[in-house]
Amino acid sequence: MTKDSDALVNDPDGGLPRLLEIMRRLRDPDTGCPWDVEQDFTSIAPYTIEEAYEVSDAIERQDWAELEGELGDLLLQTVYHTQMGEEAGLFSFDSVTKTISDKMVARHPHVFGTESREKSAEQQTHDWEKLKAEERAKKAEKGTLDGVATGLPALMRAVKLQKRAARVGFDWPSTDQVLDKIVEEAGELTEARETLSQTEIEEEFGDLLFVMANLARHLKIDPEVALRAANAKFTHRFERVEAKLARMGKTPAQSNLEEMDALWDEAKLDMKKLP
């Protein structure tokens, strides 16, 4: 490696060029890290998803010091993919930044063009979706549901699929009809549990979840956010149950459902009293 490369890698003020050079060095087939050299897009993709969730987690906890580090980890994922893309002759970091910059300018004519900024949030959302539809058309994505990434978390993808279908009028006009469908699907799941195979039960359960995602959309609720909040609430309450058992000299394994259920109700009351 050249002295210039070593100097850049060790320059604390080297910024983005430093990070790009570090990744290039890590991926060097002769002198790089064997693990990094062996990776490809498929093997790195799960780490990219994980880092995005860790960014979200730091934001939710308002841990701004940790967020700085997590954003760095997420940026590294972009650098990783672009380095592999450059090695394969597919794209580079510069071409990726050009593509996203061009997209942002094109999608914001009210900021970078001649359109008026005097629009409601609803109108801006409508214009954004119209521009995205034009972009999909250029990619020969003609189907209503084309381009909804299959790698998204299932709940998130369900909402996106439903939004796309709703744009062309395939949607229940009222929340009451969605609630009726939930009752119907719950009944089918109950029946399936008694008479059908595990695969068929799983299918009916998926149908129920899909309609629940639709209900969230009609109520303008992000189901991912709602479920995370429910997870957090469950965690806090169960930790209180464990703490109460510990004061009794017990662990959950030494208790029983009746006792823990009573402690759970106490924990609910305790949390309601919190400011």
From TrEMBL:
Residues 39-112, 177-239 form the NTP pyrophosphohydrolase MazG-like domain. One of its GO terms (molecular function) is nucleoside triphosphate diphosphatase activity. InterPro entries: MazG-like_dom (IPR004518), NTP-PPase_MazG-like_C (IPR048011), NTP-PPase_MazG-like_N (IPR048015), NTP_PyrPHydrolase_MazG (IPR011551). Keywords: Hydrolase. CDD domains: NTP-PPase_MazG_Cterm, NTP-PPase_MazG_Nterm. Its EC number is 3.6.1.9. It is an enzyme of class 3 (hydrolase). NCBIfam families: mazG, PRK09562.1. This is Nucleoside triphosphate pyrophosphohydrolase. The gene is mazG.
